[in-house]
Amino acid sequence: EKELVVARQKFFHQEKMAAVGALAAGVAHEIGNPIAAMSGVLQEMVSTQEPSTSGKLAMLQTHIHRLSAITREISEFAAPQPVVRQLLDLNALVRTTSGLMSYDKRMQKVNLQLNLDTQLPAIEGVADQLTQVIMNLLINAADALESVKDRTLEIVVQTAVFNDTVRLTVNDTGSGIDKITLNRVFEAFFTTKRRGTGLGLALCYSIVTGHNGTIEINSTVGEGTQVLVSLPLPIDEEST
Ligand SMILES: Nc1ncnc2c1ncn2[C@@H]1O[C@H](COP(=O)(O)OP(=O)(O)OP(=O)(O)O)[C@@H](O)[C@H]1O
Ligand SMILES: [Mg+2]
In angstroms, what is the span from residue 48 Cα to ligand 1's centroid? Predict the structure, then answer.
């Protein structure tokens, strides 16, 4: 009974995310055209203007580039991706997701560091779902940093090969989680936030286990939290 309700709610959460994604892609696309037009006009003006105005025009151009970078990132992020498993570059997913998250208001004061293994092998998975995992973990980390005042606000995302797995680690210097709370964080609808749904980590859990992986959390109150996601290396077809 309860399982079914939870499953429905998770489905609803995913559907909502997909709808938001589609909307964002549409908006990004619509905004992209006028931006490209403006950029073209400016380019022409820069080459024909006298020095004093060309400086200002160059500045405008910088801002326009930034706008188009934002819309590009949104469309890359929101582009409908296949629900089938494919070989994926986890580092690329981390880069795109954190690039997009850096526009989030919560991230403004946060030092977000990517520590990505350049030799990371491809993993097999559903890009859309793994993106959701990364995003949920980053949002949780950013939320945990909101109340911190006595130390640097830092999130470090790391990828590495560990034993037979590809491991993604998200470390934050946020509030930390006490033992009693930690026992419940993967429960659907468990939240300590005023506006939380409590589905973020439940969703992460089902996505990661659906990928035959594991997710673990270590935390110290007043120091921070570490989330470890381990995903199996793809089975080598040739050797079997
Ligand atoms: N990095 C973290 N630092 C501190 N507490 C955390 C962290 N991640 C999760 N938690 C705790 O676990 C709870 C459950 O997290 P979960 O992501 O499932 O839901 P939520 O963040 O509260 O809501 P939602 O994800 O729907 O916005 C949070 O309310 C918070 O108490
Ligand atoms: Mg959450």
Answer: 55
The helix/strand/coil state of 169 is strand
Question: 208 C-alpha to center of ligand 2: Å?
Answer: 15
Residues contacting 121, CB < 8 A, separation 6+: 161, 166, 233, 234
**Which stretches of the chain are assigned E, i.e. beta strand?**
86-88, 111-116, 123-125, 154-162, 165-172, 214-220, 224-232
- How high is the pLDDT of residue 239? 54
Is the separation of the CB atoms in 89 and 116 below 8 Å? Answer: no
How far does CA 120 lie from the centroid of its chain?
18
- Alpha-carbon distance of 205 to 6, in angstroms, equals 13
What proportions of the chain, in percent to the nearest 5, are helix, strand and coil?
Answer: 50, 20, 30
Tokens of 46: 């820069």
Q: Is 79 exposed, middle or buried (0-12, 13-18, 19+ CB in 10 A)?
A: middle
Is 91 a pocket residue for ligand 1 (Cβ < 6 Å)?
no
Nearest residue by C-alpha to atom 12 in ligand 1: 185
Please, what are the averages of pLDDT over each run of 10 residues along the chain (240 residues)? 70 67 72 81 78 78 81 70 84 92 87 97 92 94 96 98 96 97 93 88 91 96 98 75
> What sign for the dihedral angle of Cα 102, 107, 111, 112?
negative
Token reading at 107: 């991230």
